[in-house]
Amino acid sequence: MSTFKDRSAIVGMGCTSFGDLWTKSTDDLLLEASTAALDSAGLSIGDIDAFWLGTTRSGSSGLALSRPLKIVNKPVTRVENYCATGSEALRGAAYAVASGAVNIAMAIGVEKLKDSPHAGLVASSVFDDGTTMDTTAPALFGALVDAYQTKYGLDDQTMREVLTHIAWKNHDNGARNPRAQFRKSVAKEMISAAPVVAGKLRLFDCSGMADGAAAAIVVRTEDAERFTDRPLYIKALEVAAGPGGGAVKPDADLTSFPEVVASVKRAYACAGIDRPAEQLAVAEVHDCFTPTELVLMEDLGFAERGKGWRDVLDGRFDAGGDLPVNVDGGLKAFGHPVGASGLRMIYECWLQLRGEANERQIADIGVGTQRTRALTQNLGGPPGDCVSFVSILGVERG
């Protein structure tokens, strides 16, 4: 079993608004997020020993961070791992601190997508042997819908109600988030009647592209209270990269992501969690498309296999439900600047567990309650060719 639990802690965080930030550059976003994180921990840029920058398209080396932040001759590591890129930056910073290699580290994720060539549909691929094919993300993730319906016997109307509820929930949550890209509730009737994008996916089943950045300051657990009286202790950080093969392989089961199952199993073991639906206070998961969130509820152990759809319709994952999921709006409403999304999820957990989420604050969680831990989950890549990241965080040691 991993000994990583409680070896490091987050003592400061910052997050920009996400959205169509035409007047802000990548440098602007990096400065805004890093300054907010430093200020919250009472630190200056010179206090940071090493940096991990996560971005997929907004920088090709550590210089993308060192230039705007005026970092002089310190380690800056640029990482990329699909949509788990921001989470990967946190993992690098936390591992370095826990190992004793550095005392104070910064993890920061950023992306400028709105004024880039990336349209969120067909992305460029690395050179291969020519046997793979490029297709749209909605088409790939839309296949989850038919797979789930076939395996568990859901008719089209019921499945539409489930997907609509997920989109409605996340837009309703985003309406209470001043940093979200989409800040309006959307009626279920509008969601259900929206134009078809691919297969059975409609417009509101798909997350939006956005610009944004988020940052975290990480230190060793024994040093955490020097910087804040309410640190967030890191209980687990787990990544799983699958063997590939694609969603078209004959034995592909698109009602589950094996990479998610593997990563969360290790995370729960490390954090000492055996009843996640009861022991977690809040969760932020990778709702790139509404059926993704449905499948994740079962892969993460929040719902029984084949019954997650019932729990969705019963409101178990709503803001007022037993286990609130994506209370900041998720990718669906907060937006998805790829390199920043993982740290944005951590940021919401930071706010919720510290009681600082204002209008969307979940009651009776955090210090002095029975629910003191949160989970985040990133999914990078398409079904059959993906990576999964899971973090578990808490406000108490042990």
Written as H for each helix and E for each strand, in order along the chain, the element string is EHEHEHEHHHEEEEHHEHHHHEE
Fourth-tier CATH superfamily name: Thiolase/Chalcone synthase
Main β-sheet description: 9 strands, mixed
Number of helices: 12
- Widest β-sheet, arrangement of strands: 3-2-4-7-1-8-11-10-9
- Strand fraction equals 15-25%
- Shape summary: globular
What is the C-alpha radius of gyration, as a whole number of Å? 20 Å
Which regions are unreliable across 5 or more consecutive residues at pLDDT < 50?
Answer: none
How far apart are the first and last residues' alpha carbons, in Å? 15 Å
Written overview of the protein:
This protein has 398 residues and is α/β, with parallel strands linked by helices. It has a single domain (8-118, 207-394), classed as Thiolase/Chalcone synthase (Peroxisomal Thiolase, Chain A, domain 1, 3-Layer(aba) Sandwich). The chain is 33% helix and 17% strand. It is built from 12 helices and 11 strands. Helix 3 (85-99) crosses helix 12 (338-353) and helix 5 (156-174) packs across helix 9. The model has no long low-confidence stretch (mean pLDDT 94).
Topology record:
Layout: E1 8-15, H1 26-41, E2 50-54, H2 63-69, E3 76-79, H3 85-99, E4 104-111, H4 137-152, H5 156-174, H6 188-192, E5 196-198, E6 201-202, E7 212-220, E8 232-241, H7 258-271, H8 276-279, E9 282-284, H9 290-299, H10 308-313, H11 330-334, H12 338-353, E10 373-380, E11 387-394
Helix pairs in contact: 1-2, 3-12, 5-9
Question: Which descriptors apply to this entry?
Answer:
398 residues; alpha/beta; nine-stranded mixed β-sheet; two-stranded antiparallel ribbon; 12 helices; 17% strand
